[in-house]
Amino acid sequence: MYGFGKKVKGDFDSAVEQVTEALKGEGFGVLTEIDVKAVMKKKLDLDKRPYKILGACNPQLADKALTADADIGLLLPCNVVVREEEDGSVSVNFMDPEAVLKLVDKPEIHTLAADVKSRLERVRDALS
Question: Once rounded to an integer, what is the mean pLDDT over residues 80-94?
Answer without folding.
Answer: 98
